[in-house]
Amino acid sequence: MATGTTDIRGERQSERWAFVGSLLQQQGVLIALLIVLAFGLLRYGENFRSSFNIWEMLRNNSYYGLIALGMTFVIMTGGIDLSVGAVVALTSVTAARLSPHGVLVATLGAIALGLGIGLINGGLIARFKIQPFIVTLAMLLACRGGALNLAHNANVSVDFASGFIDLGQKNLGRIPVPVVITVVAYLLASIVLNLTRFGRHTLAIGGNDEASRLAGLPVARTIVSVYALSGALAGLSGAILAALAFTGSPNYGIGWELTAIAAVVVGGTLLTGGRGSVWTTLVGVLLLGLIFNELNFERGKGIFELTQYWEEVIRGAFLLIVVIVQSRLTRRGPAALRT
Amino acid sequence: MTEAQPRRDFLLEMEEIRKIFPGVVALDGARLCVDRGEVHAIVGQNGAGKSTLIKILNGAYRRDGGRVVFDGRPVDFHSPQQAQSAGVSTIYQEINLVPFRSVAENIFMGREPRRFGFIDWRRMNREATEILGRFGVHLDVRQPLMNLNVALQQMVAIARAVSFESRLVIMDEPTSSLDEREVATLFDVIRGLKASGVSVIYISHRLDELHQIGDRITIMRDGKTVDERALSEISKLEIVARMLGKELGEVRREGATGFTKRDVQTTSAPLLEASGLRRGRALQGASVAVRPGEIVGLAGLLGSGRTEVARVVFGADSVEDGTVRFEGQPAAFHSPAGAIRTGIGLCSEDRKAEGIIPYMSVRENLTLAALPTLARNGIVDRNRQREVVDRFIMRLDIKTSSPEQRIRELSGGNQQKVLLARWLCLNPKLLILDEPTRGIDVGAKAEIQGLIDELADQGLGVLMISSEIEEIVEGSDRVTVLRDGRTVAEFDRDQISQDAIITAMAHGEDAAVHPPVGT
Amino acid sequence: MANLGRAGTASASTSALRLALPSWLRDASQTQRALSALVVLSLYNAIFTNNFLTLATLRVNLTQVATIVIVGVGMTLVIATGGIDLSVGALMAIAGMVAPKIFMSERGPLDSPWVAVPLAIVVPILVAGAFGVFNGTLVTWFRIQPIIATLVLFLGGRGIAKALSDGKLVEFRNPNFDYIGTGRPLGIPVQVILMAIIVALAAWVMRGTTFGRYVLATGGNEPAARLAGVPVDRVKIAVYAISGLLAGLAGLIVISLNTSADPYRVGEGMELDAIAAAAVGGTVLTGGRATVVGTLIGASIIHQIRYTLISHGVADGTTRIVVAATIILAVLLQWRGD
Predict the structure, then answer these.
(1) Contact A130/C264, CB-based, under 8 Å?
(2) What angle in degrees, to the nearest 10, is found between the helix axes of C292-311 and C270-281?
(3) How much is the mean pLDDT over chain A?
(4) How far is Cα A286 from Cα A52, in angstroms, rounded to an integer?
(5) Is B496 helix (H, G, I), strand (E, B) or coil?
(6) Which residues of C touch A258 (CB under 8 A)?
(7) What is the C-alpha separation between B409 and B418, in angstroms, rounded?
(8) What is the chain C residue with the closest CA to B52?
(9) CA–CA separation, A242 vs A248, rounded Å?
(10) Which of C6, C18, C145, C148 to probe the A interface (max A CBs under 10 A)?
């Protein structure tokens, strides 16, 4: 029986193409990062290389990294979380209000609130089957409202005596605390994604909802969990932001959904779900961060006028390009196989 | 037919199965008995109830009556998972796996082996390799499933089923997208399963395969089991006859349909000439021609490419090779809109999915294709629209409380009349009707058939696809028979007979020359 | 058969929710339900809210609801084809930033208000319409799901608006231009007249024209519509273009009303308001069934909830939370209403 069957190994042209495509998609972002990095080192020299710039860049991208991490899990299930920016605002105010009670209470409070919001999002999506974008868009509105209430329509200063600001300002050795937290979060997330059933089920549900149901996977519970995770990480991000900026504000986080989604898709996670990785999201965050960092330098050289407001446009353009490329890839990949 | 079966120790016995959907009796008196370690084929036309029966077996549907005994115990599965853990696995036609995940993950999805709460990848990959190896499939189980071809994806689905220690594996059209070599591989695997004592239910419309792989066969028609036999005792021709509900050599009653015998001049120049149509595996050289005022029946078993021919001619699908001529002019339509402008209409076989716009009114549905002709500068001329709608409601005797009633509230027959009217109000030259009377009650059926006759008398060319042999035999002026995407026989009026058509459907090319007797 | 099997999958919790409604409310169409809700709200306000029944209040309310309705009409058409347009708020902001650039410019012929003001109205609307075509192209040619396709501009579009104005608030005084936000021929605010015309026109287009039927047929059953010769792709591009044009107009109304253009605030949250107005009014989010008049009612409800809360001294933040909850509830009820 073994003879005659071993020669079929799926090495058809179209399928190999899809595989090469996915490889390029996964490694492409890393290659791009290295190119951008090399460009920066060559062009801006010492200032760019100075450790201050690098650590500051990393510190100021840590909160993007955290919400992008949560967004990665949500997008892997085929969903979307448009509420993260507003959750950051709400939890930054919460953390500022709780800051007199110390760093632990403030941070955990912010995380718990984010988690609760995520649970509501996930519950409405999984239980009542409302489209994710409507639920999280309404949550965006509600969280901004909540933030305004909690902040009494103003910025809330943090308590400087309680040690809360250490969360954002302190360094462990030379490494800023937010960077440590972010790296640990990515490590844990990578373990969860690759080594736990929850992680694998997240990917399976996004890849084929119906098959997952038929295989008896806990679909609803998994969906609730990813939104809860996204909310909790946005809460942590809000706390770090408050500690970094010394204030919590209902106006924080406007447009951060874009930052997170752009980083996730630039990292190669499919917006339609089913495929992705946490590390490429981190590379995506760094790539975007580095590009904007270099634009700052470029502005410093006074060669061209490009205000910071173009950043959003550039992020949007990245999103557009990746979305178009992805739609091509997914159409050629599995579609050809499903016939 | 099924009398006095010696009492055997069946693995599965399903008897007197009933299933009713709102408004439709899907199964009534269905029976399925599967021996231990046998490959059991199920055949039947579209709507015969094969899928429903399988879904009742595997818990996707609940039955409304009847008994199911599996391995000596009465069972009533509530979900596919429950059936699976009891040893009944189903491999669906559209393979239900996750393309981006690895082969091993797909095999173990939902019960990944763990160590200290973490997934034990090494064990999972090792066991997956081992299971696939049992079928003679050796590949890197860490690669994503999407890298594999369809046949290997099938193997993975089977491996998943087997890894549940299944006693019974159901395969729904497993070969529909496989090439010959891949089919051979699949058959090796099925024989391997059989050798290890696993039973296989094999649903297929490819008759050639049944005798190669099957031990026994259950034939279904209209929600009933009509025959159950060892495959060694039944010929392909008999299988087809049973599926269609016909006895060979049976004298056909005249007037079983609403068609009347017509006298047509079939000498005029062809309206439509399509030849050598090719598209993927579905069409491999199909040809058909229709003259004005002629009804051409397009016959063939499920999967023979009938619908595909219709869609290609109508411009709904692109064609890879072949020519289409309309009124003598080359005509390659890239969209239905182009075909419609030229004077062609198509009534799809699936009224619900491709015909009606459910929440629109009868009036809107009826005039949807004609809107460009009923509007001036994009503004619909309500009076003309109303006039057209009223005329066709009268002429086709469409039973609706008002033209404003939503079409979804109408009976199947009346919906079909509205869809016919959608084309008739355009005064087409050619009408392609794909299963025009499927799922329609007897009265309305005869009415629609009579109407088709009348239209042809008025000079309309009709290409009629049907699974009902009477409809083809009584209604057609000429018949084209398709088999595996190829035109295998053509019959003129005086050559049309039930036996000839059935033989061509079952055997293909040589059928007309060598009328087979038995096998 | 597979379709028949699906009918029974509605989850128990949501049908329970629906059963909790009184029967007359359960059986009524969504639009009827919305209308009764609007009547109840208005009655409440007439009794408990000071000055509700004055002409001035009515005028203020109508003025504020007009932009939601105008954008909501475009959204209704998009939803009717089975799509969604998340970019409307951002397109309002873009149009709102383009206009001052034109009428505040003193270069060449733009110096004359007779040239500048008409251009400042037409050009921004066309720009927004062009972005709508862009959305439609992504949805049709590139076959990207509408949510994702319009997400690009929902997120990136506001960046374009900010880039156009360097992120600054632009204040202006231009009586000619301000007319579209503050003019009152016969005592009726201009945007209310525009709203009325747009609603009437759209309602007529949906009922009386080939295009309107094509929109509903596309959303009602796309494969069937294609087979009946409906130019599905062109129809889709057209609805996104219309949605863009109307968003552009709404953006101009907002900036002229405020006599300032704030790239952060113009059209903020409008996508949700517009979707909600359509959904509350009875347009089915899965496409194929749409009511423009329902959208007018839906927008009025959402606005009046906001007005009621604010005029009773409820904090702005709380108001937003209540509106968000209302929207979710409306979508829930509608989803079960089928």
Answers:
(1) no
(2) 120
(3) 84
(4) 16
(5) coil
(6) 155-156, 159
(7) 12
(8) C1
(9) 5
(10) C148
Cα→Cα distances B9→A187, B37, B73, B232, C247, Å: 57, 12, 12, 21, 72
What CA–CA distance (Å, rounded) separates B295 from B113? 62
Q: Is B153 on the interface with A (CB under 8 A)?
A: yes
Report the distance separating Cα B433 and Cα B349, nearest Å: 8
Q: Are B423 and B369 a contacting pair, CB within 8 Å?
A: yes
Contact A9 B152 (CB under 8 A): yes
pLDDT of residue B255: 61
- The residue ranking higher by pLDDT, B192 or A238, is A238
Q: What is the pLDDT of residue B3?
A: 47
Nearest CA among C313, C319, C312, C314 for reference residue C49: C312
CA distances from A197 to B79, B162, C110, C228 (A): 22, 21, 65, 47
Q: Measure the CA–CA gap between A102 and A99, rounded to whole angstroms.
A: 5
C33-58, pLDDT tens digit by residue?
788 888 888 888 888 877 777 878 88
Residue-wise pLDDT for B359-415, tens only, equals 899 999 999 999 988 888 889 998 999 999 999 999 888 888 889 899 988 888 889
Beta-strand pair B12-21/B295-299: unpaired
Residue C187: pLDDT over 70: yes
d(CA C75, CA C240): 8
Contact C227 B52 (CB under 8 A): no
Q: Name residue B15's beta-bridge partners.
A: B67
Compare A123 and B109 and report the one with higher pLDDT: A123
**β-strand partners of B222:** none
**Region A162-166 average pLDDT:** 86
Residue B252's alpha-carbon distances to B423, B491, B499, B505, C277, in angstroms, are 32, 17, 10, 18, 63
Beta carbons of B105 and A338 less than 8 Å apart: no
CB of C8 within 8 Å of a chain B CB? The answer is no
Highest-confidence segment of A316-325, C101-110, C329-338 = A316-325
User: For all residues of chain B together, what is the average pLDDT?
Assistant: 85
Indicate the DSSP class of residue A307.
Answer: -
* pLDDT, tens digit, 9 for 90 and up, residues C6-31: 333 334 444 445 555 555 555 557 77
Percent of chain A having pLDDT more than 90? 43
Task: Give the burial string for A11-35 (b: 16+ CB within 10 Å, else e).
Answer: ebeebeebbebbeebbebbbebbee
Reported as a pLDDT band with limits 50, 70 and 90, residue A288 is: confident
Q: Are strands B461-465 and B295-299 parallel, antiparallel or unpaired?
A: parallel
- Asked if C287 has any chain B CB less than 8 Å from its own CB, the reply is no
For chain C, counts of helices (H) and of strands (E): 16, 2
CA distance C76 to C242: 10
What are the pLDDT digits (tens) for A59-69?
A: 889 999 999 99
Check if the beta carbon of residue B166 is closer than 8 Å to that of residue B4. no
Indicate the residue of B61, B360, B379 with minimum beta-carbon distance to C209: B379
pLDDT at C298: 92
The terminus-to-terminus CA distance of chain C in angstroms comes to 20
- The pLDDT value recorded for residue B123 is 92
DSSP secondary structure string for all residues of B153-167: HHHHHHHHHHHTT-S
How many Cα neighbours within 13 Å face the side chain of B492? 6
Nearest CA in chain B to A273: B100
pLDDT of B4 over the 90 cut: no
Q: Do A200 and B97 touch (CB under 8 A)?
A: no
DSSP structural state of residue C84: -
Long-range contacts formed by A50-55: CB under 8 A, 24+ apart: A51/A174, A53/A293, A55/A171, A55/A174, A55/A175, A55/A176, A55/A179
